[in-house]
Amino acid sequence: MRLVSLLPALAAAAVVVAGQGLTPTDNPRYVTVAIARPSGNGIRGAVRFTRLADGSGLQLDVQAEGLEGGVQYPYHIHVNPVPASGDCMATGGHLDPDRAKALAGGAYRCDPAQTWTCEAGDLAGIYGNLTADGSGSSKFKTSYRSTVLSFDGRVSVLGHSIVIHAPNNTRLACANIVGYKKADHKM
Ligand SMILES: *[C@@H]1O[C@H](CO)[C@@H](O)[C@H](O)[C@H]1NC(C)=O
Ligand SMILES: *[C@@H]1O[C@H](CO)[C@@H](O)[C@H](O)[C@H]1NC(C)=O
Ligand SMILES: [Cu+2]
What we know:
Bound molecules: 2-acetamido-2-deoxy-beta-D-glucopyranose, copper (II) ion
Pfam families: Sod_Cu
Keywords: Signal
CATH class: Mainly Beta
CATH architecture: Sandwich
Signal peptide: 1-19
Domain Superoxide dismutase copper/zinc binding: 44-169
Structural class: alpha+beta
Helix content: 10-25%
Number of domains: 1
Mean pLDDT: 87
Order of helices and strands: HEEEEEHHEEEE
Protein name: Superoxide dismutase copper/zinc binding domain-containing protein
Distance between the termini: 40 Å
């Protein structure tokens, strides 16, 4: 029994030493920034979440490169973390604590003007897809604020992952969302 209770603590310590990151079991109160760096199939991205000082939610800064011109790449917060194997299929479905998808009864359509119709993790649905800036660039960059997402409670982004999809829904790139204490943590 003692060994079992020690295991989570050991796992948490290992993660903190490796990346100076905080695990989901650390107190989210200390998290000011969280970052995911999905990569795969020639795509490299970063999604940074920063706690808004007024407590209304999170600022998101999103970057991606290696995008094919004219292609719309959806991306989302998926419920499960990426396992050590890196298999994006293991991340399960989208973060959706209010069950927007189930309530839509198979006719899910996220209307950004009515965010209650959207899964909380449907970042592409609410804020738009990743798509290359044009004129030969393979890069994309955007920033926005979310009053839906948080580092605390049911809509916490911590412990989940980011997945970037091809238009045919194939999972191209994924990474875990890792929390940090330092507010100026780089993307
Ligand atoms: C986002 O990308 C998907 C897949 O490519 C596409 O079906 C959808 O229409 C795009 N959404 C917008 C707003 O362009
Ligand atoms: C889906 O899109 C990816 C990337 O464009 C492509 O490599 C893959 O073959 C496609 N899969 C199917 C089943 O069409
Ligand atoms: Cu997804």
